[in-house]
Amino acid sequence: MIDYTTVLDKASELIFVFDKExxxxxxxxxxLEELEYTVDSVNVRDIIPNVFDEESDxxxxxxxxxxxxxxxxxxxNHTCFPVRIHFSSDNENYCVCYMTDMRENVSMQKQIxxxxxxxxxxxxxxxxxxxxxxxxxxxxVNGIKxxxxxxxxxxxxxxxxRKMDIVLKCCENxxxxxxxxxxxxxxxxxxxxxxxxxxxxHELIESSISIIGxxxxxxxxxxxxxxxxxVPGSVIGDEFHLSQVINNLLNNAIKFTSIGSVELxxxxxKQQGKDMELTFFVRDTGIGMSVDEMDKLFQSFTQxxxxxxxxxxGTGLGLYVCKQIVELMGGNIEVQSEKGKGxxxxxxxxxxxxxxxxxxxxxxxIEDLKKDFMQSSSDSSIxxxxxxxxxxxxxxxxxxxxxxTLCVELDNWDRAEGFSGVIKKLAETGPEDFSKNAFxxxxxxxxxxxxxxxxxxxxxxxxxxxxxxxxx
Length: 472
Hints:
Layout: H1 4-9, E1 14-19, E2 24-27, H2 29-35, H3 44-47, H4 58-63, E3 69-74, E4 80-88, E5 94-101, H5 103-154, H6 158-189, E6 197-200, H7 201-219, E7 222-227, E8 234-237, H8 239-255, E9 261-284, H9 291-294, H10 306-312, H11 318-328, E10 333-337, E11 343-361, H12 366-379, H13 391-409, H14 413-427, H15 432-446, H16 450-469
Parallel strand pairs: 7-9
Antiparallel strand pairs: 1-2, 1-5, 3-4, 4-5, 6-8, 8-11, 9-11, 10-11
């Protein structure tokens, strides 16, 4: 025969048995030690007083309850500790109570809660720091821009004006980074608000193209746009944040495109009543990405390759912010890309039209548009062939050499590497001596050897100036 009391005495749970009147008839070993009661002197109400009402039928309540109950168990000296109890009754006269000591669990939960509170405080402090820092950074950047603009108005030297334009462009890049940091803090805090106000979509796109066009022209990249005839001019939505997404994607496309073009196309892909879905395509002929690299794209503070930050700059926040904004506007964003053959970013947003559409109008499907884009890309691929001695190309090279020279003098090696890389690309179809010097320039920029960089920049500049004289 099995001695059940021996088995129960070895259990880690507190176990006791009580009768219909609530009198405890058995306590296992751990219950005797922990509660300090003796069997002949305790009632179930003494151990777990908070479970029963004063006039309730204890036995009926316990026998009919199959659920666990969290409560406190009281010792003989009236101190208590948290427990989880469960009742079991196999006959009409006795009921068993199993109690699990929850002190360790409660203590661990308190530690977890304290840790979570601490983490929330750290996150709050970080967000406040980010917001304060970005606001503080705006003041000196605006000051620099103001002084440079004033100096530019007083300056007649074209070369110096070009250098001032570079400084202004650097300030604009800094402002973009500041704005992305501010938006990131708002998104993390759930404070990003999407407005719904009427605005002219066509004017917004044309304004973005006009502003970013100067950046494209500076790099010699062709910038085109197309708004489908079915896209309404007047829409209701968030003009500022839509503009931010468009500008961010266009700037990104131009940044990673040395030769070729960047295109923006807009279509209406669905409308029911006033509710409308717009689809945007931003396509470039830039460096492209592999499948593995695309997986990292929309994560915060992440770029597909660490070397990209050095060559092209950026915080890795822009696409993360774009993704969050697009999703807040009821849409989604994706990318199609191939290494060395450019990228196409596709995003949708939900807006409202000023005009009601009867029934549901499926103007064109996104999948059809993707097929059209793939077909047009294969039919009209942009060649990388360059006529080296073309006047526009030579002037572009001269401009890039001046920018690289300024970056080298300012020890801005990240930007210098980006500019020198474009020079090297453009120099591939040029004279052998010129292309060799362009290659040597890139190598020395990477090693941050200022004197050598000056030497090769001077050689490249002299060749360009001599060649340009032949056009006069």
